[in-house]
Design a protein that fits this description.
single chain, alpha+beta, 32% helix
Length: 266
């Protein structure tokens, strides 16, 4: 009898720990801005071409936009729209998106993406397996039409997606390769679309088979691996820790990128 009581206690203890871990991980789905909201009116009286380093830092704190995103805006008054949404919070729901993973989605007003370019990378941590935030990543293959290429989820092949899905993640970052012109980044995106579309999802990629292969020989991929391989095939190792398996977090921490935009990450 005591043995059964002990086993029941263990079961309920594990169940409680599991529920607690889910509540804990949900708290990380959206982190509000660290800075207090401040008046940006003085920036509207200046030309974007005249913004200083301190102006760009202030804008980053108030909107989540990096220098290149600001410079791509035709009208500085748009900064106020980004500021409103940046400080607007993010109510979200969490649903299972595979037999083993969950994904958060904004249930109210979506976020606003900065102007994107071909080859840009989007990264979010709004996906988790139990309490481990594995995250998700994508590469922009047609910025004009708002199309990404992604290894979406276990059990499906990589495919194109509408960029609007990224406005529903309660946190994300947009990255752009430094020291490379628009033409080179567009070529990386074109190569990815040509070679990495309709590839089976494989969680073990990096362990078996090997992490790198010629693009024409790829037999499996996962979200971060697809993005990494698109760049690795063109001479850029964007895995910050150069491990066997690449994750969205590894890509986010690569020093080869500039931060174009961030949302929901504090």
């Amino acid at each position: 009898m005591k043995k059964w009581i002990f086993l029941i206690c263990i079961f309920y203890g594990l169940a409680a720990a599991y529920v607690s871990s889910l509540f804990s991980v949900e708290a990380e789905a959206y982190i509000p801005p660290a800075a207090e909201r401040r008046d940006m009116g003085y920036l509207l009286e200046k030309s974007i071409a005249d913004y200083t380093e301190s102006d760009y830092e202030f804008i980053r704190e108030q909107t989540g936009l990096g220098r290149s995103a600001v410079q791509s805006l035709a009208d500085s008054r748009k900064l106020l729209k980004y500021q409103d949404r940046y400080f607007g919070g993010a109510d979200f729901i969490c649903d299972m998106n595979s037999p083993i993973s969950y994904e958060e989605r904004i249930s109210g007003t979506p976020a606003i993406l900065a102007p994107l370019e071909d080859g840009d990378i989007l990264v979010t941590s709004s996906s988790h397996v139990l309490s481990w935030r594995n995250g998700h990543a994508a590469i922009v293959v047609n910025a004009e039409k708002g199309v990404t290429l992604e290894a979406v989820v276990i059990g499906s092949n990589s495919r194109t997606q509408d960029i609007s899905k990224w406005t529903r993640y309660p946190n994300f970052a947009v990255l752009r390769l430094k020291n490379a012109d628009k033409k080179e980044r567009a070529e990386i995106a074109r190569s990815a679309m040509e070679n990495l579309d309709d590839i089976p999802y494989r969680v073990t990629i990096g362990l078996f088979p090997a992490k790198y292969s010629e693009l024409s020989l790829v037999s499996g991929t996962q979200c971060a691996h697809l993005v990494w391989l698109a760049y690795a095939a063109n001479g850029y190792d964007i895995d910050s820790n150069h491990g066997l398996i690449v994750t969205p977090k590894d890509i986010l921490e690569s020093d080869l990128f500039e931060l174009v935009q961030t949302f929901g990450k504090g």
